[in-house]
Amino acid sequence: MSALRMAFNELRRITSGTLPRLAVLALALVPLLYASLYLYANKDPYANLNNVPAALVVQDRGTQDLNAGKDVADELLNGKKFNWQVVASGEEADEGVRKGKYVFALTLPEDFSEALTSPADMKPRQGVLTLTTNDANNYLGSTIANQVVSEVRRAVTEKVSTEAADRLLLGFSTIRQETTKAADGATQLADGNAQLRDKLTELDTGVQQLSTGAATAATGAAQLRDGLHELRSQTQPLPAGAQKVADGARQVADGNETAAAEAEAYAKLAQTLVGGLDQLNGDVANRLRALGFTEEQVQRVMTTLTQARQPLDNANGKVQGAAGNLRKLATGADQVADGAAQLSSKMPALVDGIAKLDDGATKLADGNAQLRTGLQQAATGTPQLKDGAAKLADGSAQLRDGLTGGVGKIPNADDPTREAIAKAIGDPVAVKGLSQTKAATYGAGLAPFFLGLATWIGAFVLFLLLRPLSRRALAAGQSALRVALGGWLPGALLGVVQVLVMFSVVRFVVDIEPSNPIGTFAFLVLMSLTFVAILHALNAAFGAVGKFLGLILLILQLVSAGGTFPWQTIPVPLYPLHYGLPMGYAVDGLRHLMYGGDLGSVGQDALILLAWLAGALALSSVAAYKQRVWTPSKLKPELVL
């Protein structure tokens, strides 16, 4: 018989009948189911990250100019990259991650904005985000959570750029330079004010001296005025008595001698006064120059003084002339008689000159009185001016000291420091990773999924050899539950052996150490007992078709258990598979036991597996009960695998 002939006969055998044809069709569809469902479930898990629950804790209190926490939170919520749930506290977020309510949590701390603006105080620090993960929820969840960090870093870096920080630091340098200039100017001002204070002290002394001298001059001028008044009053009778003088020349000679002596005394007094004023003018000019007045200002003051004393000079000249005349009169007393008539005619002019001299002396006295009053006022004001200058000097010194001290407080980062701070602002966010549980390696991270898969496959291959139900027991009329347990127990025992060997190799050869080895082993045993029960029930109830159904269930659980990416990333139509089939609970329980997660969820997973175990044994019992009746299809099955 040729090979083609044998192939044709085998194909005809396996297609003889409706059920065999359906089996061939199903076998042809197995690769399609694997490829299509697996690719459908994992086509683009990143596009479904918006279904992954994540906790967001915003504690940032912000600053006057920046509220980065709120800005980042708004961007994350509006971006919808994850299913963000805003929670009130970090404790609530941690508890949610621990119990699997959230895959991870991101916390924006209270000082987040303050840290981002800290380079302005020359004490740069990064804003630290807290990323809380738990590999017991999903091993790749931590990897996916890093996308959150990238989003946050991008958002913050856009708001706090290196260029802005560099401009800020350059601004500090400019402020420091300008303040340094101001401090230098304040120092010069303080020095100038100190010099002004010293000069005003000297001016005060000079004014006091000048005031004293002016008072003496005023006294002398008053005496001159009084003397001239007396002279004027005494010379008034001269015109009327000129004739008598002519008659009593000798007597007049004697009187003129007395008058000449008195006139000389007055002339001497007037000359002394004029000489004192000359010396006083010189002292005033010298004092003004010493006080720092310009020569123009000195000459202006001297001109004013010269004009003020001009009447006194004129009066002095007339007094000196009068004294000389009186002297001549006394000398020529003998000639008076001859010139009495002439003297009588000249006497009115003499009286008028004396009157004018008296008027000039009065003006000189009044001018000196005004000068004395002015100098007294100046003497009174210069202490106040001196006190003001002292206060100005003290204030300038305080300004100088304040600016000098302020320069030291203004930041002045050098180029390396400025670049370092700018880089810190350019990379403003640091991430504090807080792993509640963590897989040691990539293999350890995927171990729960592969262990669950291996346990299912181990249970599947057992019934390629084992009979699900004992025909002898069925023929003997044993109870359906007893027959079902009798068919399940051999597979269960072999399944425990499979788990023991698998766990030992994974632990001691592959060197993947669970956080709770005893609990992990016990949970694997429960998984094996449950999976064996499920496959036993399928084989008992559906025969050869049950094997195919076991394979289909394996495919469905591969795509819905969430063994690699979080199960929330699968398409929404596959969600019922995750909630309904046992593999997802098996993987979740193993993760918590292997990584040290919350044991409360392990209890829930174990209860669900026990429910599947009980349901599978119940289905096996029903199948055993039905198979107590023999039918033609049972004696000659249409499909045998």
From TrEMBL:
Transmembrane residue ranges: 442-466, 487-509, 521-541, 548-567, 606-625
Chief location bin: membrane
Keyword Lyase in annotation: no
Localization of this protein: Membrane
Keyword Ribosomal protein set for record: no
Domain ABC-2 type transporter transmembrane: 29-157, 436-620
Record keywords: Membrane, Transmembrane, Transmembrane helix
NCBIfam families attached to this UniProt entry: pip_yhgE_Cterm, pip_yhgE_Nterm, xxxLxxG_by_4
GO MF term (any one): ABC-type transporter activity
Protein name: ABC transporter
InterPro entries attached to this UniProt entry: ABC2_TM, Phage_infect_YhgE_C, Phage_infect_YhgE_N, T7SS_ABC-Transporter, xxxLxxG_rpt
GO cellular component, one term: membrane
Organism: Lentzea guizhouensis
UniProt superkingdom: Bacteria
SUPFAM superfamilies reported in the protein's UniProt record: Methyl-accepting chemotaxis protein (MCP) signaling domain (SSF58104)
